[in-house]
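FAQ
Q: What does a multi-component entry look like?
A: The components come first, one per line:
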Amino acid sequence: MEFRTISAETVTAAVKKLFMDCNYFIGGDILCALQKARENEASPVGKSVLSQIIENNRIAAEEEIPICQDTGMAVLFVEYGDKICIDGDFDEAVNEGVRQAYRDGFLRKSVVSDPVFDRVNTRDNTPAVIHTKIVSGDKIRLTAGGKGFGSENMSAVKMLAPSYGVDGVRRFILDTVFRAGPNPCPPIVVGVGIGGTFERAAQLAKKATFRPVDTCHADPRYAALEDELLAEINKMGFGPAGLGGSTTALAVNIETAPTHIAGMPVAVNICCHAARHAGTEI
Amino acid sequence: MIKRITLPITKDSVADLNAGDSVLLTGTILTGRDAAHKRLFALLEQGEPLPVDIRGELIYYVGPAPAKTGYAVGPAGPTSSYRMDMYTPALLDRGLKGMIGKGARSREVIDAMVRNKCVYFAAIGGAAALIAKSIKREEILCYADLGTEAVRRYTVEDFPCIVAIDSRGNNVYETEPLRYRDESILPCDVPKP
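Then the predicted structure of the entire assembly, as tokens:
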């Protein structure tokens, strides 16, 4: 079997560029959604907030400075080809890319080593959260995002019984968004993971926040649920920055997976309007 | 109408502010967030003096990104205020005049604001690059070991914010969403099995 060798430096350089890019340049899908929201926003204050967010994103891109001071915890989804050989440690190559991006890109170091007792800043924003999946092929596909914790803190997982049905799923998602209220920097992107196990649902929800907001679930029933939930969330009235208005969310993205006969896990991962993600292939 | 305020904020200008007012602040403000609040609160609990005089000051909940070469400060938008709620009443009772942050506050914070005639401003979360344009200078005052969470003094010019909760306890996070809430909204409580 032929293997393709990739240097650890190549991985590091790709990861570094992804984290700098995603923190400076908002995605075209988010920008379009923000502009459309500004046209349709019912509140004058909400319209003004959306204008300031759009202007902020323009300044960040033009000057190559972070959109938000919370440049996030580094999260990567990796599709790792089974015909790849790395001349080094893959996770270390990724973390080195994160280290360099946050140092050379003037990004904020927001990670503490121990969650409860020490809480000492690691000063280089490592370690990254790396989700690796082995796929066939000789390429590495990287999708990276800097996840801010203002919105991460508003996220939730619930193990619903199958008897709850779609109504239970709907209520849990709406309940989570309602409880978050003005805190997660609306307009938000709501990532939902349904199915799998406890941790798979959460991982799917994160993946859903990385999906462009102008896409929908492949199954028309879930796509309809995404639309319905978005409309319901925008009736809540929180509005841009939570100061009141008709744009509380830009999108609801649902990802699904097979699950156990006894369960229906649902995870809701909330992302702020600075929904930063970027992808590349090596 | 936009109200311009020169800092330090006076008792009269706090009294003149109403929830929902757009404001531009000029002068100096303090910064501090989770870790600094924890330390300041611990000192108050022990009856020790604070390393920075908070009387009459506004504190901005921010952990800035580093300043790019050639810039005075890095991007610096507000962080969620609720995480400071358990420390805030003690600081207000000791003379802090107000806070700048984003998002809801607890009943205890609002009561302490009314008791001490203080104001809570909201800055726009996620507009860090834009907000940094109104911050002209920074100086680290204490807790430099906390990095981004160190306590700084910012010199600001026309720093844009909105009065989120005024000194009488009027709260835009309570009143404004209701004006845009559609009562036909589906129930969102999860029933018991």
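Q: Is there any commentary attached?
A: Sometimes. For this entry: The domain at 2-180 of chain B is CATH 3.20.130.10 (fumarase).
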